[in-house]
Amino acid sequence: MTRYSRQTRMLVAIDCIIFGFDGQDLKLLVIKRGFEPEKGKWSLMGGFVQPDEGFEQAASRILKVLTGLEGVYMEQLFAFGNPGRDPMERTISAAYFALIDINDYKQQLSDEYRAEWISLKKLPRLIFDHAEMVSMAQARLRYKAAIHPILFELLPQKFTIPQLQILYEAVYDTVFDKRNFSRKVLSTGLLIKQKDKERASSKRGAFYYKLDKRKYSAKFHAFLNFVADPGNLK
Questions:
Q1: Which residue segment(s) compose the domain that 54 sits in?
Q2: Which residue intervals define the domain Nudix hydrolase in the entry (predicted)?
Q3: 88 in a domain, yes or no?
Q4: I need a surface site. Which of 21, 71, 110, 138 has the fewest CB within 10 A?
Q5: Has residue 6 been placed in a domain?
Q6: Do 55 and 121 have their domain in common?
Q7: Is 142 among the domain residues?
Q8: Is there a contact between 162 and 206 (Cβ–Cβ < 8 Å)?
Q9: Residue 18, pLDDT score
């Protein structure tokens, strides 16, 4: 096959911004880079796109290698192509962000990469332009969560309204009124109330809920303005 003449070849990589929620903090899954440049420094999980892969296939493969997971919520974020972003070789990176439940999947993490969950409030310095990727992913997450119920992807199968509120407050770094938050959540019709309660947090306890998966799929694009003006919360 004839190639385009007089064109410089470039590498194409995938970087995955993997968010998780531990019940209190929104966290990021990061690894210690195993090769130069920046060997031993904190990095997002990534890899190069193979000749027979599309971007989504490569992102799914990389996510599975690190977490053992398939079929999780994942979305393409942005393409990062600054000529000097990787000092080793000209590399373009397609960044994806993913949402997973820490509690269910923390035991499936690969030991090879020394991966750790670190709170977004305490992130160490990340290599290259990875901090920019994380910042952009946070902004996208806040925007998407305001109009679509994607934050349920971060929760265990059973959860309480207070736990859900803590998650929203962690994502938006703000405090919501308890009564208004509960009313708005229940008005979506997405939750199924359970008979049992979570009693570790208080004597009275809070009822558990489950997500109605059928309604979740049907109403995904009708979940509008759940958080008003997400970019200007105080």
A1: 11-126
A2: 8-141
A3: yes
A4: 71
A5: no
A6: yes
A7: no
A8: yes
A9: 95
| Structure-model confidence comparison of residues 71 and 26, the more confident one | 26
What CA–CA distance (Å, rounded) separates 143 from 33? 30
- For residue 190, the domain's CATH number is 1.10.10.10
By the 10 Å C-beta count (0-12 exposed, 13-18 middle, 19+ buried), 80 is classed as buried
Same domain, 109 and 20: yes
The C-alpha atoms of residue 210 and residue 137 are separated, in whole angstroms, by: 27
Which residue has better confidence, 70 or 83? 83
pLDDT at 115: 85
**Ranges 6-20, 74-88, 186-200: which has the least confidence:** 186-200
Q: How many domains, in total, are found in the chain? A: 2
144's CB contacts (< 8 A; 6+ apart) are 75, 150
Q: Is 186 helix (H, G, I), strand (E, B) or coil?
A: helix
pLDDT at 130 > cutoff 80: yes
pLDDT confidence of residue 135: 97
Token representation of residue 32: 């210690």
pTM score, two decimals?
0.91
Same domain, 117 and 191: no
Question: Tokens for 77?
Answer: 């974020």
Question: Residue 2's pLDDT is what?
Answer: 78
